[in-house]
Here is the input.
Amino acid sequence: MAAIENQQRRYVTSAAIVIAVAAGAYTIGRIYPPLGPSAGTIAPADRYVSAQVGSGDVALGDTSIPKLMQTDAFEVLVKNPSFRAMAADPGFAALAANSQAMAAIAANPGAFAGLARDIGAFKATLRAAEALAADARSRGPSARVDSVMAANAGAFQRFAKEPGMLATVAAYPNFFAAMAPHAQVMNAVANDPGAFAKFAKDADAFKIAAKDAGAFPAMANKAEAFKSFAADMRAMDAISRDSGAFAKMAENAGAFKNFAKQADAFSSAQSQAALMSMASQADAFKIAAKDTGAMLASARQIQALDAGAAMASMASRARIDAEAMKAAQAYPQALSVMAANTGAFAKLADNPNAIAAISRNGAAFAGLAQSRAFAQLMSNPAFAAGLQSRAFDSAMRSRD
Here is the structure.
């Protein structure tokens, strides 16, 4: 009997050891998996991983760049040798990341082609522009408004043909600057302001509707554009702060509809630059909107505005150095544009490669300045990121 009990104990002990060893092996296998293939096991098949879009191209779930590459504007420009060469320039990608400066340069390519060849002259002109902007600030809001108008004369002459629209844009400059990169959305709202008036008191409802644009008749034709707009958090924040603009647009529906009938009404480089510049002087334009008559008079006679007198006055008061004064005299148009966008150009001045890209691609800028496709692509929020995408680069190279 004792022998049987001893034998049973050995069986139990042996079983326990086997179980312990098996458990230990399992645990070790979980923590330290085998480095090579294991005999007698079936390994999962390797999956194909595309090398076209890298992890740095877009955030998880972000489809903005693929959608950008499916637009008609992209399809037109990818066939353009000048655009492909410009897009391949590393400095151009840096320039495109500064959307306000990019819009201003695209609207005035001739003004910057020569200036960009000389970084010293560029910085000297910027100093003159900053002095001019400071002088305008010291002279009050109207001088700042005039400065922006002078830098965007063509756009403001077009705006002034629809007084109700200009007054509305001036009263809500941040709202329209937020919409500026989304030209299709802007045109849709301008063509039917009454349909959007209900969002004046409920900006959250606008965001919800834009996310499901196909279900809202006034958005359905441009559903993808509205969905992209809804994903632009900075734009949504600006819309929330100034949602009253929807009601004001409805009050001036005729003016907006008339303007929207013009070719490239909101998508042109000139319009884009003007709307962004107005936002940079938002407080001054809000004041100007209260006296629409005076603002319209200035807009209609914009050619008469000249920075020369102000520059001469500052030079006489030693408010500007000789080198800056010389640059201002040599590049008067660039001076006006920079004075209306000093913050954007100050950032650009710290990036010599981006400035050099303007010079290297001067002919391309000039050739594309009137291109509707270029204006649409440039205004797309995904454009700057797309330039650094391997998928974007691959598409460009495939057309060489």
About this structure: The radius of gyration is 30 Å. Residues 72-180+266-397 form one domain. Residues 386 and 392 are 6 Å apart (CA to CA). Residues 1-61 have pLDDT under 50 and may be disordered.
